TrEMBL record:
Gene3D superfamilies: Ribosomal protein S7 domain (1.10.455.10). SUPFAM superfamilies: Ribosomal protein S7. It holds the Pfam family Ribosomal_S7. It comes from the Eukaryota. This is Small ribosomal subunit protein uS7 domain-containing protein. It comes from Solanum stoloniferum. Keywords: Ribonucleoprotein, Ribosomal protein. InterPro entries: Ribosomal_uS7 (IPR000235), Ribosomal_uS7_CS (IPR020606), Ribosomal_uS7_dom (IPR023798), Ribosomal_uS7_dom_sf (IPR036823). Residues 48-114 form the Small ribosomal subunit protein uS7 domain. GO terms for cellular component: ribonucleoprotein complex; ribosome.
């Protein structure tokens, strides 16, 4: 009898939690991301309601039309910027792995959500 009550309580707690389906690298949530500067708010895509992605590898053609790169997730733009210079061209999986390891290091050192910390670092 008590086991069924505990199971029902656990199910209620899971239903009460606000849950977003999309987590970056299946680990970090987009819910806590806040952009403090309103002038760049339209150009940084990092919130839960603006194109969230699981991994920063969408293979989108964001340069085909003017201002479309504003719809590219900010983590993917960081990943693409790591692919500069000849020896790194086309190695997006390596760049994604570097971003993932960097976010895990930030999480271990600060015990904070590294996606939120990354936004703070980008705006400084």
């Amino acid at each position: 009898m008590e086991a069924s009550v505990v199971a029902v309580d656990n199910q209620k707690q899971q239903q009460e939690k606000p849950h977003t389906d999309v987590l970056l690298f299946n680990r970090w949530s987009y819910d806590d991301v806040q952009i403090g500067d309103i002038s760049v708010e339209d150009y940084i895509t990092a919130t839960a309601n603006k194109h969230p992605t699981y991994t920063p590898h969408t293979a989108g053609r964001y340069q085909a039309k003017r201002f479309r790169k504003a719809q590219c997730p900010i983590v993917e733009r960081l990943t693409n910027s790591l692919m500069m210079h000849g020896r790194n061209n086309g190695k997006k999986l390596m760049a994604v792995r570097i971003i993932k390891h960097a976010m895990e290091i930030i999480h271990l050192l600060t015990d904070l959500d590294s996606l939120v910390d990354q936004e703070k670092m980008q705006l400084v």
